[in-house]
Specification:
This protein is α/β, with parallel strands linked by helices and 210 residues long. It has 2 domains: 74 residues, no CATH class; 117 residues, ATPase, nucleotide binding domain (Nucleotidyltransferase, domain 5, 2-Layer Sandwich). It is 27% helix and 23% strand. A 5-stranded mixed sheet has the order 7-6-5-8-11, sandwiched between helices. Strands 4-3-12-13 form a 4-stranded mixed sheet, covered by helices on one side. The protein has a two-stranded antiparallel sheet with strand order 1-2. Helix 2 crosses helix 5. The chain is globular and about 45 Å long. The two termini are 22 Å apart. The C terminus is likely disordered.
């Protein structure tokens, strides 16, 4: 998202400039509907809807995928930029993220090990499950590769990193903003943007129904 000769992400530390830039981008791109998860937007003049309850705004998206897949004992693991979440049919749990980034980032091998351990523990706590949704805070290419994010070691092919943990059950891997947006489809042909803001600006997903 580009506005004011820079990316909206680069404006994140100045809320007034950020929301002004976001509004400029939304109008220039022809959006008619905005969904915001994981943050507040009091200074935003563009019509929008704040999704609740945080930090479980993606729950309706997980419910939709579970229903479409026909799973009876489903599990969702959401590796957000600020919190890790585990969801079952009867439970929502959030955990602090213990993988520092930036100047304090762990070595890639250690980050990858901790990430696998969290997912493994989430699977063990869920017990019996027949399908898994794994939301990642990075773009997933058509080849199944995770692009860069603040998680050390979370890049490249996703299947070798996590596949051995799922013990022959089906699993799907969406971007975490895709998971959020999936639960709030437009009722009309409105061009919609879903924005997750837990990491200051978060990730965005375009929706266009024609």
């Amino acid at each position: 998202m580009v506005a004011r000769h820079t990316t909206v992400f680069q404006l994140r530390d100045d809320k007034a400039a950020y929301f002004a830039g976001l509004t400029e981008f939304l109008r220039a791109a022809g959006f008619e509907r905005l969904l915001i998860a994981g943050g507040e937007a009091a200074a935003l003049s563009f019509p929008h809807r704040l999704l609740r309850p945080a930090p479980f705004c993606a729950r309706p998206g997980a419910d939709a995928i579970w229903a479409e897949s026909g799973w009876r004992r489903p599990l969702a693991i959401d590796l957000g930029q600020t919190q890790m979440k585990r969801r079952t049919v009867t439970e929502n749990r959030a955990f602090p993220r213990d993988l520092p980034f930036g100047g304090r980032a762990l070595p890639e091998d250690e980050g990858r090990k901790r990430l696998r351990t969290f997912v493994q523990n989430a699977l063990a706590a869920a017990g019996d499950y027949d399908g898994v949704v794994l939301g990642l805070p990075s773009r997933i290419t058509s080849e199944g590769d995770a692009e860069s994010s603040t998680y050390p070691g979370l890049y490249g092919p996703v299947k070798p990193l996590f596949g051995s943990l799922f013990q022959d059950v089906p699993w799907v891997v969406p971007h975490d903003s895709v998971l959020t947006a999936r639960g709030y489809p437009p009722e009309t042909t409105q061009k919609t943007l879903a924005l997750t803001m837990g990491f200051g600006v978060g990730a965005a997903l375009w929706h266009a129904w024609c």
